[in-house]
From TrEMBL, chains A, B:
The gene is MECR. Belongs to the zinc-containing alcohol dehydrogenase family. Quinone oxidoreductase subfamily. This is Enoyl-[acyl-carrier-protein] reductase, mitochondrial. Its main location: mitochondrion. It comes from the Eukaryota. CDD domains: ETR. Catalyzes the NADPH-dependent reduction of trans-2-enoyl thioesters in mitochondrial fatty acid synthesis (fatty acid synthesis type II). Fatty acid chain elongation in mitochondria uses acyl carrier protein (ACP) as an acyl group carrier, but the enzyme accepts both ACP and CoA thioesters as substrates in vitro. Displays a preference for medium-chain over short- and long-chain substrates. May provide the octanoyl chain used for lipoic acid biosynthesis, regulating protein lipoylation and mitochondrial respiratory activity particularly in Purkinje cells. It catalyses: (2E)-decenoyl-[ACP] + NADPH + H(+) = decanoyl-[ACP] + NADP(+); (2E)-octenoyl-[ACP] + NADPH + H(+) = octanoyl-[ACP] + NADP(+); (2E)-butenoyl-[ACP] + NADPH + H(+) = butanoyl-[ACP] + NADP(+); (2E)-hexadecenoyl-[ACP] + NADPH + H(+) = hexadecanoyl-[ACP] + NADP(+). GO terms for biological process: fatty acid biosynthetic process. Keywords: Fatty acid biosynthesis, Fatty acid metabolism, Lipid biosynthesis, Lipid metabolism, Mitochondrion, NADP, Oxidoreductase, Transit peptide. It is an enzyme of class 1 (oxidoreductase). One of its GO terms (cellular component) is mitochondrion. Its EC number is 1.3.1.104. InterPro entries: ADH-like_C (IPR013149), ADH-like_N (IPR013154), ER (IPR020843), GroES-like_sf (IPR011032), Mito_Enoyl-ACP_Reductase (IPR051034), NAD(P)-bd_dom_sf (IPR036291).
Length: 373, 373
């Protein structure tokens, strides 16, 4: 979720942030000294002490591993992606910001090494993912509170587990929670090649929904179109093609979408609104264009369009951990049936983080950078 | 509802318009000849044959009165206001547009003179108002289909009856249908001195809701503030005052609004969004500034603000005539209890329509022009 804006400084959100962090950051980086060491109680982590350009502010540091308390879980991280929201959080442009210094990364999968005496939900060997944003997944090992973690089945691919907790959850909830869609209905989205976008295409196809997928024009556009169609996209069009009169032909064979998913803002979102069926909803979950959503008064009044936003962190706050676990298990079913695969990934060792960070902020990079530990 | 935009030319809305008009316009102006006459079968009406500036395109014409068929009602119009939406419709900027030539006016009250043999809902002497927009109320008499009319009790003031069918209905539905408000909750609105705005103030006060009312600065602003406070407004602030840090003081004593009602668009609506409580809804029902609604991506995602639109014509299409009658009776209860009064009105004889049209398009005119027949 590529989001700009200064809202993160709002008082109410600072409180949200504090609450989320107090739960998941209990043993945050003991940053008193960062010297390299062979001490097994010391582990490596990608730490930032200031908000700014990730290439400049993120450093590989040694952190001290905390002792495992009764309700704690010692986790060896296996893989953790670099998502747009991780970058935004480091830049300081996100709805919740950790206390600095902080370990980067909000998503990833780890394996349980040891558990405290009163831990019942997971056992050594289990795979776990963060229960909430802000955990700091870009590190080799950590001791977390049990309630900061959610167990995931081990019979899914590692890359799927590492990329399960944010993007597919966001995609699934947006498809389910705003419009009552039935098989045959259509959905339009922009940023269709993003992690969320690819999950939307696959989950929608599995649910019998037809997708119109907008992407930015680029070299090798046909290759991208083919790859999204292979995932189940019915139509893939560039932003420019979306504005052409020929778009009408698409809607001769497919119903006008009742749901639009917007990760861009600006002109791109104006175009999504224009394509929506009367009464339809546009859900904004990102703002890659760093421009606001602009809606004509006429579309709101006479076409009864609805503009909403979605933020998985808020959804989790409004739902119980069991509901989040249920969501994860639902997505695992899609994965086991071959209906949901991880986005194309480039695995990069944690130590080569600079290369991975650089690649993840380049435009038109179609593969997700995944740090491996 | 002061609305701009080209949506009225959209195909789906043209259909809405056609349906609305085929129901309410059955005996539309028989415009074959417009010569003045003393013939009792001929009546006077304000007719426009082209879209454009009301002062230029509206003319007083003689129309022929149709015979009263079995399901028809002969109505003598008593009073009909000039609303912003009437002006927009004449200008051609509205979500439904009548076939031209058309009689102006969407609201008003008339008295039944005679009824057809199978009419059961109203009888001679009853007061009636239009069931839908597009009836053409600016005329001395007309024969309408029974289903184009709704009876209203005669124990409310004439001006209240003449201004009941659009603005108070819009105000009440917007207060009831978007957020579940409880006594003590607050509502913020702009264009607070409009017909809808005054109805919002009064109905909200009757429901125990606290209102923050934004108005444009003007000469004699204190007089306007006093008059809105007399109606029940808790706070009245100018657009400029709304942007000042002192606004924070208001929210020490009043909860942040969960509902914002926007009839302006542009900067004014941006400011309403900024004042909304997290999770709150802004309902747009007009666009006086002729500028779109602009929402930052952050407000949508991290503050979970919802942007909606309201159009009474659509509400009526989605509800039964009995539900509209129930709404009218609910509003009559407010009127009888002294909780809802008509806006300050200037009565102008139909023949002096040019003066009334001119006054109704002037800025900062605080009294509504009502044509009397």
């Amino acid at each position: 979720m590529w989001v700009y804006g200064a809202l993160c400084r709002a008082r109410s959100l600072a409180r949200v942030q504090q609450e989320l962090f107090s739960a998941s950051w209990r043993r945050g980086p003991a940053c008193s000294s960062y010297s390299a060491s062979d001490d097994p109680s010391r582990v490596q982590a990608l730490v930032y002490g200031l908000h700014g350009d990730p290439a400049k502010v993120v450093e590989l540091k040694d952190l001290e591993l905390a002792a495992v308390g009764g309700s704690d879980v010692h986790v060896k991280m296996l893989a953790a992606p670099i998502n747009p929201s991780d970058i935004n959080m480091i830049q300081g442009n996100y709805g919740l910001l950790p206390k600095l210094p902080a370990v980067g990364g909000n998503e990833g999968v780890g394996q349980v090494v040891a558990v405290g005496s009163i831990v019942t939900g997971v056992k050594p060997g289990d795979w776990v993912i963060p229960a909430n944003a802000g955990l700091g997944t870009w590190r080799t090992e950590a001791v977390f509170s049990e309630d900061a973690l959610i167990g995931v089945p081990r019979d899914i691919p590692l890359q799927s587990a590492a990329t399960l907790g944010v993007n597919p959850c966001t995609a699934y909830r947006m498809l389910m929670d705003f419009e009552q869609l039935r098989p045959g209905d259509s959905v339009i989205q922009n940023a269709s090649n993003s992690g969320v976008g690819q999950a939307v295409i696959q989950i929608a196809a599995a649910l019998g929904l037809r997708t119109i997928n907008v992407v930015r024009d680029r070299p090798d556009i046909q290759k991208l179109k083919d790859s999204l169609k292979n995932l189940g996209a019915e139509h893939v069009v560039t932003e420019e093609e979306l504005r052409k009169p020929e778009m009408k032909n698409i809607f001769k064979a497919i119903p006008q979408p009742r749901l639009a998913l917007n990760c861009v803002g600006g002109k791109s979102s104006t175009e999504l609104l224009r394509q929506l069926a009367p009464g339809g909803t546009m859900v904004t979950y990102g703002g890659m264009a760093k421009q606001p959503v602009i809606a004509s008064v006429s579309l709101l009044i006479f076409k009864d369009l609805k503009l909403r936003g979605f933020w998985l962190s808020q959804w989790k706050k409004d739902h119980s951990p069991d509901q989040f676990k249920e969501l994860i298990l639902t997505l695992c079913d899609f994965i086991r049936r071959g209906q949901l695969t991880a986005p194309a990934c480039s695995e990069v060792p944690l130590q080569d983080y600079q290369r991975a960070l650089e690649a993840s902020t380049k435009p038109f990079v179609s593969s997700k950078q995944i740090l491996t530990m």
